[in-house]
Amino acid sequence: MILSSIASSTSYNNRVFALEVVGLRQNQSTTNLNYPIRRSGSIYLQVPYNRLNQEMQRIQRLGGRIVSVRPVNGLPPQADTPAPAPVADPPPPKTENKVEQTSKSRPKRTTTKEAVSRSKPMTQAKEKTDIPLNIYRPNAPFIGRCLSNEPLVRPGGIGIVQHIKLDLRGGDLRYLEGQSIGIIPPGTDANGKPHKLRLYSIASTRHGDDLDDQTVSLCVRQLEYEHPETKEKVYGVCSTYLCHLQPGEEVKITGPVGKEMLLPDDPDANIIMMATGTGIAPFRAYLWRMFKPEERQLNPDYQFTGFAWLIFGIPTTPNILYKDELEALQAQYPDQFRLTYAISREQKNSEGGRMYIQHRVAEHAEELWDLLQQPKTHVYICGLRGMEDGIDAAFTATAAKHGMDWTEYQRELKKQGRWHVETY
After folding, report:
1. 409 and 296, same structural domain?
2. Is 238 a residue of the active site?
3. pLDDT digits over 61-91, tens only?
4. Any idea what DSSP says for residue 178?
């Protein structure tokens, strides 16, 4: 659905308000390069007084962000013609992460108190113009090198999971927390063709584990399964290659890719994270960015003041990835970071069965529901495909208690850019 100028006029003192809007979602119409939304980061709408609140809510549902609201007179312009701003009422100044309004640029007292409050943007994933994407492609990958390859599973744990740090020196690979990179394993497949790339979530902040903008880290589990016919043990091609990578060896890297899992710019946001296994990778990057003192020094424009909650599902205690560091953060920031484990083979749920992540969500459903009612709350889910079903079931029951339909409410959260899922 595309917003356009509203042709109706108002009879209430001829009041019409000009809205500057950015970040509207694209669709089949707006992907046309000649469409006004494609030509500019902002579009201008003129809205009669009696529809102001309704249109503001609709813009937010479409993922838009209202930069300014001003009273104007006269007929609204066409959809692709910016509304002229009054000479005595200059547009508000913009900063990199946040839109601020000066006293001169705020709506005049002819607007209602509610209209003024709704002109402030919701805390949600903002339309970014500086997201690095596909700097390196499969036909021309970056050749990095392995710097270190460290085990993450403690003795007695299940499987092999490694923390792998790759050297990016000599290239231009940049990335943000929540993105992924592609890895092209060497060799050919059964048909003699080069192996296809596999995507892995990045486990380090944009500055890298060495804080020099020259590395990227991955959290990789060696894929292992039984062949359905031969019953032989089969190992994943790329995961096996990475898990046994030796320092100094070359690696073909593509990307970065992904915009779904980016953190909101607002440092006061609530960040709820639900992970299984190596789905912890992007959340490690989030938490290091939020809380690590060295990271905070490098990010003066992002000093996290919100609340972060990680619900982490793993099979055994030795399989808790980054355990010491996570628990150290919880001890250091008890009012800002909460850590909840779901250890399936050691803990029991309320029915006596294995404890999975959906059972923890059900246990804390009311607290999580209360957080979801705050516009600054974002939910991130990362891990094995299918984990969403159990989480949805837990929220369905809670939503029903509050007289709401979870499917519809979740749809609204997605429209607002507050519900993020990456499963594999």
Report:
1. yes
2. no
3. 666 667 666 665 433 333 333 333 333 333 3
4. T
